[in-house]
Each structure stands twice: as structure tokens, then as C-alpha cells.
Amino acid sequence: MLIACSTLAVVLLLATHAAAQDVTEPALKAAFILSFAKFTEWPADALPAAKPIVLCVLGDDAVGAELERAVKARVIDGRSLTVAFAAAVVPRTCQVLYLSGMPSTQASQVMANLHETPVLTISDLDGFTDIGGIAQFYFEQGRLRFTIKVQSVKRARLEISSRLLALAKLK
What we know:
By secondary structure, the chain is of the alpha/beta class.
């Protein structure tokens, strides 16, 4: 019996390890973005009643596709979720914006257009939080991590859960 239980435990651990290796970078980023949305509160004037939470993606179709898969039939605080692929000019109807794959000058323009707008901005671009972004992905020892710039959160009038902030590197 002990041998059977030990064998089962080893098989489950190997299956979990193998499944973890199958997770792609876009799928992992999409899961993080969805979690960020779950642990964020927007001001009442930024999120009208009965409207879905709009997650916009600019410059990374792979993350956008994974995000579309991740939000199916998901609800946050009674609101449905929808994914929109944004153009260079980001509509202010986005509650979350993930941007990637662009020069820093273009990212700076997007951020300038959203100045003080209640949009949770997330990117993997180097220096993103330095140009006003809220959250920036980076890899450390092969793991996806993130930085949150508290000043940008306040400027956007958002509330981010202390549970999420505890996992972040704060700036």
C-alpha cells in the first residue's frame, strides 16, 4: 500500500511538472493580467454599472489570444470580461491595457494619452513603470515576476489589493 501511494505521488508530481512546462509565456502573462484585474478596484465613474471589464491588448496578439481563452465565462465582481485588440490610440473604454512589442517612444505616447485615466496599465517593456505604467513584467531566475509603481496606481485612482501588492516588487 505504501509503495502504491508513493508511486502515485511521484506520478502526480511528474505530471504536474510536465504540465507546468507546457505553459507558454503568453498564457502565463494572460493569467497574470487576469489576476491583476481580479485584485483591482476602479472608481465608480470609471466602470459604469452592468458594463463588462474591458481588457485591451496592444502589440502582442499571442497574449491577446491567450487572454481571450482565459476570460471565457469568467466574471469579476459580477461583471463579464471582454478582450479588445487596441489600435495605436488606446480608447479610454479599457479598464486594463497590456502593451508590448513597441518602441519606448510609442509606449510613452500611449501612457501620455492615458495620464490620470483609471486604466490598469501593464507591460513587459523595459522601463515601463518609469514612463508612468503601473505594472511591469520581468523574468528573474526563469520565473515571471512583476513590479508595481504605487505612485502610478494612485494617479490612476485605482485600488490594488494588498494581497497582490505583497507579491510585487514595489517602486
